[in-house]
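agent> call fold_tool(seq_1)
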Amino acid sequence: MSVSVTKIASNKTFGGILSKYTFKADSLGGLDAKFNVFLPSASESSKFPILYYLAGLECTEDTAPWKGGFLRDAAQEGIALVFPDTSPRGAGAEGEDDSWDFGTGAGFYINATNPIYSKHYNMYDYVVKELPKALQSLDLPLDFTRESIFGHSMGGHGAISLYLPPWGQKAFTGYLTGGIDEGKAYDSTELIASAKGKNLNILIDYVRRPLRSVTRINSTKAGQLLPENFSAAARSAGFTESQVDVREQPGYDHSYYFISTFVPEHIKFHSKFLKA
């Protein structure tokens, strides 16, 4: 089935072009879905590897391009960036606008099975299946054989799918009929334990402060999602530090000041594998 995607904005930046698109996403119940794509400056023969960025709670597809400092480094590395939104918008589902950490702006990149949310809140299918099809329909110079993903906060939770109480409990008990047990399918600590023997390349930065921690690839609140548990599970599964590197960065907070500080290193990290 063809996808009809409309360009609604375009800006030149760092020699490349940042464009905003929209289309009606089946996985989101037919609602309009907006996303941004950054393409570096290129010759006619260039095709760029793709790096997807999943943003955090309360963010949109615009937050990272505006605040994160991503575009300069992606332009230098010759990498395309894709910025999806964080949830469906305007679903009208019960309670979706009652709190900042559930519903609108807080899709958690999972597929809801609770009937209240299952028509629209399927951000996993949207990011993994439908968004790539929308990108392919645009005939942009993108190399779909070279893709990677990273994120911040809830987006890190989406990229490495941590589920640990109490943050994961609220999302999983709300979106999933099977609650916490069903949520284990999205739990990166569970998943990495079962990934023994695979070739993994993961870089995580986090900050430990009272109730706050930030990571790239994954970002969590320190007292809630416990990145050290993920690290311990990785070591137990036999992964070395060069394969799964979890680094504390003292003194920073959960903001985009932290992101803009460390994003150059992370884009270079992904570039190393995307260009291999």
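agent> call fold_tool(seq_2)
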Amino acid sequence: MTADSVADVKREILVRHLEAWTPAALHRARRATYAHGYADAAPELAEAALRVFTEQSDLVRGRELTMVAVGQETADVARRLAAIQQGAEAAAGLTVHTVGGGTDGALAIALKAAGSARVPLLGFLDATAAGGPPAVTAVSALAAGKPAEAIIVLPAEGFAADDYRAELRAAGFPLVAAVELAVDEEPGEVLVFATASGKSLEGFKDTLWAVDEYAGVRYRDPGDPERHLIDISLNPHPGPLRRELLGHLAEVGESTVTELRTFALTETVYRAEDATRVLHALLTAGSVTRRPEQGRLGGDVVITAA
């Protein structure tokens, strides 16, 4: 795997999501918090996040935006972030805290000290260098935000999609989607997005497919039994979604179009609109049937595997 290329994809996903999240969060509330975990493992990602905030300084006037960067040893991270702040136009209302002691142990304490409960809160936890997923306490601390979102990156090996989705839902994030970042047949890092908002999940999926391609990095749906690699595109290859929709219908018997769109959004790497596109193709091919047989493919139309 090309580590630099995967890092580029992660950075662009983070930056694009922050560019959308920041104005929305500060429009919703007077205060908002961004939490960046494992900051010392990849300080360039924390720097990229802070640059988004300094470049949008006009958006935080009259509002308070707090960035909390947590890691094991954060002295170097603190110097890097301070340099960015010094080199940029002062952003009114922007505060940056760096906290040592490790993300798993210190994140919850740092967020409480920053007064992050019940305000818009976004966490980015790239745990690939940690060798395993973030501690439940760290993820649960992020769920204290209102609304709360989390982007979590897991190591290439040992990811069980269904098990980790269940853990995140228990921690307070009912909607979870995941994508594997890969360049070949070997397992890749898994990027997970967790939220309580369907609108936020839709926005993240749009971001996911809008990023640029980097040196052959492609996506893989963790739920695809054939582990098909998908080129990053605004119109992604539908093969894995086709298989997953048919597999889901084989399990449940029948589903409405709305239920299948929700399945695609929350259980696959695809968007709800991709499910509609695939359903039209499946109906044309005779792979599924619909009830009623005629009319627009509305949300209440029932789909059954042929």
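agent> summarizing second result for user.
Residues 3-28 form the longest helix (26 residues). The chain has two domains: 3-230, 239-305.
agent> awaiting next instruction.
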